[in-house]
């Protein structure tokens, strides 16, 4: 019999490991739209539409390359709804001699793949996913050699390994490894010349999928009205070029800035494409470096962008697999409050939150600082159950797969791993949001006040968060300054702040 090669929804790369090792003439590629994957969390409608449409286009691409593709659609009446049951049906259709598959991107699906050999009595080869720079073995040995894991040192090794932005003498370009300090400019005024991502008009395939999703997932969060994602490699490359030409030059300067009604700013909007396999992250980094070498973009932009990909992206993946499947259950701060309902509607009078959540509903997208310092910061300060926060992020973003979402949410944003991913919690008061955005200008709250009817909720919550967690965080060197400031406040002021926070938190329940 032939080889059966299942290709999962985030493996949309023509030379993915399992295919690269196979003979087209003797293989059947199996692609499956299955209910379990669309419902293991209640994904945003646009996320489901993006993945299904990209899968359908990818099947066409593989066929054009000469592969035989067996494609099971979600609305096929015989569809059994899970990867394992669909592989069983495909075995009955094709009588394969063996299964080859590329490793899954999360523990949940990995367990399924590992069960197939015994269950089906067929040889199953699980190929390592080599679309990443750093293999599991490499990360594990890097981590084993260290008492404390820090992204910055991992990143330097990835720079050396790739040679990206390195001089011929083996030093970092410009003399520094990291230009983050130059990437914190407050937002400029709005103008009409701001870059916008390419808006791809849905073709017939995408329109079919949009109708299917509107019909089947009406109860999931999100709008389909603004669906303009790329769904093929060629389209994703157009967005890549748009980013390189128009946004990258100022990506560095304004990486942390936020502006009302401007969801995209100078970000790339490439994460859904990279994570699904439509774009090659290393090729993208080489294109960024080439722009720098050609004098078209400054070093802080090129370095800042490359760091996100070969540094953060690879690092969080390493942590995800290194820490094991129970990472998702951690709750270092012991928080239990349910996620407030406005995370699903955007209906809150906190303007920053309404903006970040509103654009998430519209576009299944928010940029890093919105995720970290608006919605993430709020959940951290309010003491929300980190598992609920994790599920929300996994649901709402088109780029969300557990291997990348979980360490970012549970670790970096919610400090629920106790400081493994970041050395201090990303907690901030309204002052930070006011510095990095124009949100506060059109908010009903006053960002300068800590107590009273009009006080910005982030302020009292920030101090209350520190006070509440003093036992766990009081000894953190990086929080010494805020704890000193808290201790210096007069006792009645502290009591008023804590009372303000308590009343606000009660109003959430
Ligand atoms: P840009 O700002 O243009 O950055 C360029 C690229 O760098 C991104 O496309 C992405 O591939 C990579 N990158 C940047 N930061 C990170 C990071 N912290 N971790 C991994 N890759 C990074 N990213 C996801 O891809 N999927 C997620 O599910 C996800 N969940 C997140 C949850 C939280 C709470 C936070 C704080 C961050 C999360 N991120 C996630 C990281 C980051 O916010 C997104 O990668 C980024 O906003 C995607 O938009 P962009 O392509 O315009 O990014
Ligand atoms: C996220 C997702 C969704 C919504 N639907 C499918 C699907 O129908 N078929 C499929 O193969 N993959 C889907 N995915 C992506 C998978 O969940 C993804 O491959 C795993 O998360 C990786 O382990
Ligand atoms: Fe957000 Fe507070 Fe600013 Fe309003 S005042 S936008 S709630 S930080």
Automatic annotation (TrEMBL):
<protein>
    <submittedName>
        <fullName>Deoxyribodipyrimidine photolyase-related protein</fullName>
    </submittedName>
</protein>
<dbReference type="InterPro" id="IPR052551">
    <property type="entry name" value="UV-DNA_repair_photolyase"/>
</dbReference>
<keyword id="KW-0456">Lyase</keyword>
<dbReference type="InterPro" id="IPR036134">
    <property type="entry name" value="Crypto/Photolyase_FAD-like_sf"/>
</dbReference>
<dbReference type="InterPro" id="IPR007357">
    <property type="entry name" value="PhrB-like"/>
</dbReference>
<dbReference type="GO" id="GO:0016829">
    <property type="term" value="F:lyase activity"/>
</dbReference>
<dbReference type="InterPro" id="IPR014729">
    <property type="entry name" value="Rossmann-like_a/b/a_fold"/>
</dbReference>
<dbReference type="Pfam" id="PF04244">
    <property type="entry name" value="DPRP"/>
</dbReference>
């Amino acid at each position: 019999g032939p080889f059966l090669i299942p290709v999962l929804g985030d493996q949309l790369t023509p030379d993915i490991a399992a295919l690269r090792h196979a003979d087209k003439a003797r293989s059947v590629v199996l692609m499956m739209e299955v209910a379990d994957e669309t419902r293991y969390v209640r994904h945003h409608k646009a996320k489901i539409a993006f993945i299904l449409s990209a899968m359908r286009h990818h099947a066409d691409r593989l066929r054009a390359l000469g592969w035989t593709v067996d494609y099971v659609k979600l609305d096929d009446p015989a569809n059994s709804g899970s990867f394992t049951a669909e592989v069983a049906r495909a075995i009955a259709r094709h009588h394969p001699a063996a299964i080859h598959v590329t490793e899954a991107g999360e523990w949940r699906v990995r367990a399924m793949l590992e069960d197939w050999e015994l269950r089906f009595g067929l040889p199953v080869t699980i190929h390592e996913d080599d679309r990443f720079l750093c293999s599991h073995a490499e990360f594990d040995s890097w981590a084993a050699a260290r008492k404390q894991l820090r992204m910055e040192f991992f990143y330097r090794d990835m720079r050396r390994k790739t040679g990206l932005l390195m001089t011929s003498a083996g030093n970092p370009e410009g003399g520094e490894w990291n230009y983050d300090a130059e990437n914190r400019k407050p937002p400029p005024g709005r103008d009409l010349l701001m870059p916008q991502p390419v808006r791809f008009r849905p073709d017939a395939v995408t329109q079919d999928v949009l109708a299917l999703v509107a019909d089947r997932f009406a109860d999931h969060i999100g709008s389909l009205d603004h669906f303009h994602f790329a769904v093929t490699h060629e389209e994703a490359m157009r967005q890549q070029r748009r980013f390189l030409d128009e946004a990258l030059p100022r990506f560095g300067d304004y990486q942390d800035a936020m502006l009302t009604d401007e969801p995209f700013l100078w970000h790339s909007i490439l994460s859904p494409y990279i994570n699904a396999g439509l774009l090659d992250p290393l090729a993208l980094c080489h294109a960024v470096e080439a722009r720098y070498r050609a004098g078209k973009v400054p070093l802080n932009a090129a370095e800042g962008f490359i760091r996100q990909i070969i540094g953060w992206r690879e690092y969080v993946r390493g942590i995800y697999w290194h820490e094991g499947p129970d990472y998702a259950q951690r709750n270092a701060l012991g928080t239990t409050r349910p996620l407030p309902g406005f995370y699903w509607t955007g209906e809150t009078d906190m303007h920053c939150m309404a903006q970040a959540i509103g654009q998430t509903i519209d576009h299944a997208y928010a940029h890093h600082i919105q995720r970290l310092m608006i919605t993430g910061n709020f959940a951290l300060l309010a003491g929300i159950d980190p598992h609920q926060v994790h599920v929300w992020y996994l649901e709402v973003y088109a780029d969300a797969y557990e291997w990348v979402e979980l360490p970012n949410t549970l670790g970096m944003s919610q400090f629920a791993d106790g400081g493994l991913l970041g050395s201090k919690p990303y907690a901030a008061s309204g002052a930070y949001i006011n510095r990095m955005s124009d949100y506060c200008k059109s908010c009903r709250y006053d960002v300068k006040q800590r107590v009273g009817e009009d006080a910005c909720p982030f302020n009292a919550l920030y101090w209350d968060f520190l006070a509440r967690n003093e036992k766990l965080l009081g000894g953190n060197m990086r929080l010494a300054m805020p704890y000193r400031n808290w201790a210096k406040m007069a006792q009645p002021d502290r009591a008023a702040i804590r009372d303000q926070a308590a009343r606000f938190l009660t109003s959430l329940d």
